[in-house]
Amino acid sequence: MMPVAKSGTRVLVLVAAIALLVACRQDPAQALGTLEYDRITLPAPAAERIVRIDVREGQRVAAGAPLMQLERTRTQSQLAAAQAQARQSREALQELEAGPRSEAIAQARANLSAAQAQAADAQAYYARLQPLGRQKLVAASDVDRARAAAGNAQAQVRAAQAALLELERGTRSEQIAQGESALAAAEAQAATQAVTLQKLDLVAPRAGLVDSVPYKVGDQAPVGAPLVVMLVGDAPFARVYVPEPIRADVRVGQSARVYLHGRDEALPGRVRMIRSEPTFTPYYALIGKDAARLSYLAEVQLEKDAAELPAGLPLRVEFDAEAQ
Predict the structure, then answer these.
(1) Hey, what long-range contacts does 117-125 have (CB within 8 A, 24 or more apart)?
(2) 92, 186 in Cβ contact below 8 A?
(3) Do 48 and 225 meet the contact criterion of CB atoms below 8 Å apart?
(4) Where are the alpha helices (DSSP H) in the chain?
(5) Which of 121, 142, 145, 248 has the smallest CB count inside 10 Å?
(6) Would you tell me how many other CB atoms lie within 10 Å of the CB of residue 204?
(7) How does DSSP classify residue 64?
(8) Residue pair 235/303 in contact by the 8 Å Cβ criterion
């Protein structure tokens, strides 16, 4: 009976050793999430009515393909008004740069000559009244009025001289600078309206899949509302939430294996992003073992052979022990 007892002891020891090895073996770090694509949202550039939709949800489109058209009438009118304002500002600047016309200068010279003649007449009349006033042959008020008229005529002469000098010297540099600024502002406004008009014809900025078209023909979405949502990129990525206990073992660039629900074969991937801030419960509200409830959002980029997989599939990601 003794050999049988020793054999049974060996079996028990062997079973215990195997159990210990299994218990000591660590499962690979893993996280749960969903399959996602990069999304592009095309917002409404203006609050205009939708007049045409060229795509449907789930359709693949190439870059530059037409997606939707909005009503253009009001924006076209605004563009025409802005272009007219730009032309007016441009012509005003050209007028400033050309300076005064020769006819205006000739008119100013004629006005100066007329003012000088009136001043000479007023001064002569005052000179004649002065001796008569001293002899009390005319009233003192008449002499005063003649003196004031002569002074006023001299002032008119100086004003005419200044007006002529201003025309002869031409347009000031500050006025030209103001004209240039006004033209630049008008042209910028016209360019803005032209861009807005162009955006009323929505086109695909990148090749991808039309994921959502929230509005229908005849709807008038507010400015900034999403008109078309696209899924783009050569391949999808896994968006997962990394538990706090394994956060220190996950790094950007680390290779990983992605398991989709219902598929046994793993898809290779690589960690492209992991947040430094926890998601869900804030870290400062947790103590002790509760810290294990923290999760960190991460993204694992898949390869091109996964490009046909639909978005939203549940998945599990296992992270390799070392970065590749």
Answers:
(1) 118/153, 118/156, 119/150, 119/153, 119/154, 119/156, 119/157, 121/153, 122/146, 122/149, 122/150, 122/152, 122/153, 123/150, 123/153, 123/154, 125/149, 125/150
(2) no
(3) no
(4) 2-24, 73-98, 102-134, 140-169, 173-199
(5) 248
(6) 22
(7) T
(8) yes
**Are 258 and 269 in contact, with CB atoms under 8 Å apart?**
yes
pLDDT score for 206:
93
Which strand (E) or helix (H) includes residue 37? Answer: strand 29-43
Q: 192: left (phi > 0), else alpha (psi -120 to 50), else beta? A: alpha
Domain 30-41+226-319 homologous superfamily, CATH: Efflux pump adaptor protein, beta barrel domain (2.40.30.170)
Which amino acid, 211? Answer: D
Least confident of 54-63, 127-136, 270-279: 127-136
Domain ranges of the chain: 30-41+226-319, 100-170
Backbone angles phi, psi at 289, to 5 degrees: -70, -20
Distance CA 224, CA 220 (A): 12
135 pLDDT more than 60: yes
Amino acid at 154: Q
Same fold? 30-41+226-319, 100-170: no
pTM over 0.70: no
CATH 3.10.450: does it fit domain 100-170? no
291 within 8 A of 270, measured Cβ to Cβ:
no
DSSP-derived secondary structure letter, 224: T
Q: What number is the average pLDDT over the span 275-301?
A: 76
Amino acid letter for position 199: K
Closest CA to 155 of 194, 123, 193: 123
C-alpha span between 147 and 123 (Å, rounded): 8
| Type of residue found at 89 | S
> pLDDT digit string (tens) for 32-73?
899 999 999 999 999 999 999 999 999 999 999 999 999 999
Please provide the distance, in angstroms rounded to a whole number, between the alpha carbons at the two ends of the chain.
57
DSSP code of 62?
-
In whole angstroms, what is the distance from residue 106 CA to residue 243 CA?
89
